[in-house]
Design goal:
One of its GO terms (biological process) is RNA processing. This is Ribosomal RNA small subunit methyltransferase F. Belongs to the class I-like SAM-binding methyltransferase superfamily. RsmB/NOP family. This protein is an alpha+beta fold. It has three domains: 246 residues, 3-Layer(aba) Sandwich (Rossmann fold); 56 residues, no CATH class; 67 residues, Archaeosine Trna-guanine Transglycosylase, Chain: A, domain 4 (Roll), CATH 2.30.130.60. It is built from 14 helices and 23 strands. Strands 5, 6, 7, 8, 9, 10, 11, 12, 13 and 16 form a ten-stranded mixed beta sheet that branches. The protein has a five-stranded mixed beta sheet with strand order 19-21-22-23-20. Helix 8 packs parallel to helix 9 and helix 9 runs parallel beside helix 10. The longest helix is centred in the middle third of the chain and has 27 residues. The radius of gyration is 23 Å and the shape is globular. 45% of the residues are buried. It binds S-adenosylmethionine (SAM). S-adenosylmethionine binds next to helix 9.
């Protein structure tokens, strides 16, 4: 592979003797992975039903390599949100941010959702996940992935981080900054990135990273954790950005993510203090080099913000307005095992949302989604949403039409075709599942199931 000359020279300087090992990897195949959605299935269960052969990624509890001849995006389990297709090293940042159920979490550069989906899974529906991306088109892909994963407590925004600060100052317990970067770690997987590298270079991204990380720092509660990651090697974008944050906000400290998460992996390398401002704590950063692990290049730094100096004030959403919920919606939702009560319901233009609790007022932000879209109330009727179907896990709903995962019928359903079906529960809305994992809705009438699968998500 022909590398840009200045990149090659710098890598030789950084890696010394090891450069030849790195260079060899450029001629090898990259690795492909899937990450299991623990909201819907445990890794152990998935191993039993995996429709193609998989092997464990040693440092990711729910991550697996798959053979590149396989097509994991063309299986009903993918449509049931049982896994996310993700490059193995890219699974590391979300796995090392110590998120626990109930946290308020921000993923500030989130699209298309590779890390947000894992952060949402770690929250188990408790707390709030704000997933943001400045690019509106990319945020649409993010919305789809969050909904397909069945995440019940999301807010999806498309804003400049500076604007978010006005709403969320010292609000979050955990923040992920998966920063835009020059992508040097991905040259093997996507050689086209080299053109972008030559056009923009390290400086362009480093300036952006410094802006974003400072804004993220302002939104973190004292005592909270911020994880910064890139898929590049340059010193400036990695130890350099972290040094800059430490100089601007001395209350931050780089901590060892491996101790905090009780995971370790021999292929991980330490950060290099001399590549930043020399502070010893930069050793706690992690570098993933493709010649040391079966994955692409990455950098990770976990930081803790200094202890609280008193309780921070949180503006809680005020009056949601008088809710006008139709009887049909009420009846439908009474059978759904979600913590639905009037305080966390929002009605907007006939659409009904379930809000995460303790959200501040978000008026004025560009939001793609505020909470879980439950459905639409149309002329007194209630149409449950695709997102609600995805957010119902195995056994959550009793009116089900279950199709075998390997049947022609399930593909017909995913192609939005009408199928024939029967139910002991009478006519009306049924959740269509593949081997018990939810796919979407269908409306049963006289043995025929009117397809309510979201057309934009259909099998092509
Ligand atoms: C490395 S990608 C994120 C990948 C994502 N975390 C995932 O795992 O799927 C960086 C993202 O940052 C977004 N971005 C670029 N500039 C930004 C900014 N100033 N604020 C927020 N996001 C930004 C890009 O649109 C891009 O989606």
């Amino acid at each position: 592979m022909k590398l840009p000359q200045t990149f090659e020279t710098r890598m030789k300087e950084m890696l010394g003797e090891e450069y030849k090992d790195y260079e060899k990897t450029l001629e090898e195949k990259h690795y492909s992975g899937i990450r299991v959605n623990t909201l819907k299935i445990s890794p152990e269960e998935f191993e039993k039903i995996a429709p193609f052969s998989i092997t464990r990624i040693p440092w990711i509890k729910n991550g697996y390599y798959y053979n590149q001849n396989e097509q994991p995006a063309r299986h009903p389990y993918y449509f049931a949100g049982l896994y996310y297709i993700q490059e193995p090293s890219a699974m590391t940042p979300a796995s090392l941010l110590p998120v626990t159920p109930g946290d308020k979490v921000l993923d500030i550069c989130a699209a298309p959702g590779g890390k947000s989906t894992e952060l949402g899974a770690k929250l188990c529906g408790k707390g709030v996940l704000v997933s943001n991306d400045i690019s509106n088109s990319r945020a649409k892909a993010l919305l789809k992935n969050i909904e397909l994963f069945g995440i019940r407590n999301p807010v999806i925004a498309s804003e400049a981080p500076g604007k978010l600060v006005d709403y969320f100052t010292e609000y979050f317990d955990k923040i992920l900054v998966d920063a835009p970067c020059s992508g040097e770690g991905m040259f093997r997987k996507s050689p086209a990135i080299m053109k972008n590298w030559e056009q923009y270079g390290v400086e362009y991204y480093n300036k952006l990273q410094k802006e974003i990380i400072l804004q993220a720092a302002r939104m973190l509660k004292p005592g909270g954790y911020l994880l910064y990651s890139t898929c590049t090697f340059s010193k400036e974008e990695n130890e350099g950005t972290i040094s800059y944050l430490l100089e601007q906000y001395p209350e931050f400290q780089v901590v060892d993510p491996l101790t905090d998460n009780s995971v370790s992996y021999e292929g991980f390398s330490h950060g290099r203090p001399e590549w930043g401002n020399g502070r010893e704590e930069l050793k706690n950063c992690i570098r993933l080099w493709p010649h040391k692990i079966k994955g692409e290049g990455h950098f990770i730094a976990l930081l803790r913000k200094g202890e609280p100096k008193g309780d921070s004030l949180i503006a809680v959403s005020g009056n949601l307005g008088k809710l006008k919920i139709t009887k049909e919606a009420e009846d439908f939702l009474s059978e759904i095992p979600l913590p639905i009560n009037e305080e966390n319901l929002l009605v907007k233009e006939d659409r009904l949302y379930l809000l995460p609790s303790e959200l501040p007022e978000l008026k004025g932000l560009r939001l793609l989604r505020q909470g879980l879209l439950l459905g639409e109330m149309k002329k007194g009727r209630f149409e449950p949403s695709q997102a609600l179907a995805s957010a119902l896990y195995k056994g959550d709903y009793h009116k089900v039409i279950d199709l075998p995962g390997n049947s022609a019928e399930v593909i017909k359903y995913l192609k939005c075709e009408t199928i024939e079906a029967n139910s002991t529960k009478g006519d009306g809305y049924h959740l269509v599942t593949a081997d018990s994992y939810s796919l979407g809705w269908g409306k049963l009438a006289k043995g025929s199931l009117k397809n309510k699968y979201l057309p934009g998500w259909r099998w092509m």
